[in-house]
Specification:
eight-stranded mixed beta sheet; 2 domains; alpha/beta; N-(1-d-carboxylethyl)-l-norvaline Dehydrogenase, domain 2; globular
Length: 302
């Protein structure tokens, strides 16, 4: 049995990297940050070291959190493989790039896994841990065990799939939401009201699939026959969203996206959202999970 992970290097210190560092550091891991902005970084957790280059001592785990571009990520992996032995696990926080693409060219692809936190990384309890194309279950389990020690609830997948679980579900919803906005059916505020007042609270209590069991699958199956064919099945990224990015409407930091953020401080907005999220998660924890039915396996279903 391999020893537990004790030391972590985080490459990249943007919004996600900062939360990941706080999560590991608060749990007592030895943490180092590698960033091109090392000289400018302030306010890191106590005991965390920072430099522009990889530390000389090999860590148990390297987490890559650089820009969501395959070549930029592969450049990090080349540096890691040149510096550290195969025992060092490489994890990517990619939210959508195929693990097979990122692992291409690795000398030791068996060390490569997907480790996907959600913003803010030190608040959300769920992290996805996904096997790279050659990673054995033992490597995935070792990373998941380390995350559990930070207080996370790992969602483990032993085979790679683009988008993992959560982003596949999230993008299904968002793709249809963007379609409705572009078609003039509903604006962003209406869709967000539906999410906040109905979908979100209901999913917090009964999940997504369990709720359909409770409501009865017959009505749901009948509704699928008319609703599913009417959904957007273009199979390409939403053109309106791509056009917004092209003209600089990139969201909060730009001052405009689907909402006008003029005059609002981005850090204050994010801090307020994180505080409210913590309050919701605390309330859900106090509420408890309720009666949990046994989930049937795929072999039990048609």
């Amino acid at each position: 049995m391999e020893p537990p992970i004790e030391s972590v290097v985080v490459v990249g210190y943007g919004v996600m990297g900062a939360g990941i560092v706080r999560s590991f550091a608060s749990a007592g891991f030895r943490v180092a940050v590698v960033s091109g902005r090392a000289a400018m970084l302030r306010g890191l957790p106590a005991g965390v070291t920072v430099s522009a280059d990889l530390p000389a001592a090999a860590p148990d785990l390297v987490i890559e959190t650089v820009v969501e571009e395959a070549e930029a990520k592969r450049a990090v992996y080349r540096r890691v493989e040149a510096a550290y032995p195969p025992a060092t696990v490489i994890g990517t926080n990619t939210s959508g790039l195929p693990l097979e693409t990122l692992a291409d060219g690795l000398a030791h692809p068996e060390r490569f896994v997907g480790v996907h936190w959600f913003h803010p990384a030190d608040v959300f309890p769920v992290v996805e841990v996904v096997a790279g194309p050659a990673a054995p279950p033992a490597t995935v389990d070792r990373v998941a065990a380390a995350l559990a020690r930070t207080g996370k609830a790992p969602i483990v997948l032993y085979r790679p799939v683009v988008g993992y679980v959560i982003n596949r579900l999230q993008h299904c919803i968002l793709h249809e939401a963007y379609h409705m906005i572009a078609a003039g059916i509903a604006d962003a505020a209406t869709i967000d009201t539906v999410a906040r007042r109905l979908l979100g609270p209901r999913m917090c209590v009964t999940g997504l699939v369990e709720q359909k069991d409770i409501g009865g699958l017959t009505v749901h199956a009948l509704a699928q026959r008319s609703i599913v064919p009417a959904l957007d099945h273009t199979g390409v990224p939403n053109a309106m969203l791509q056009a917004m990015i092209a003209r600089g409407d990139t969201g909060l930091d730009a001052g405009r996206g689907f909402y006008d953020w003029t005059g609002l401080d981005p850090e204050q907005v994010r801090g307020d959202a994180a505080a409210r999220l913590r309050a919701v998660l605390d309330a859900l924890s106090a509420l408890g999970a309720g009666r949990a039915p046994r989930c049937r396996s795929r072999d039990e279903l048609p």
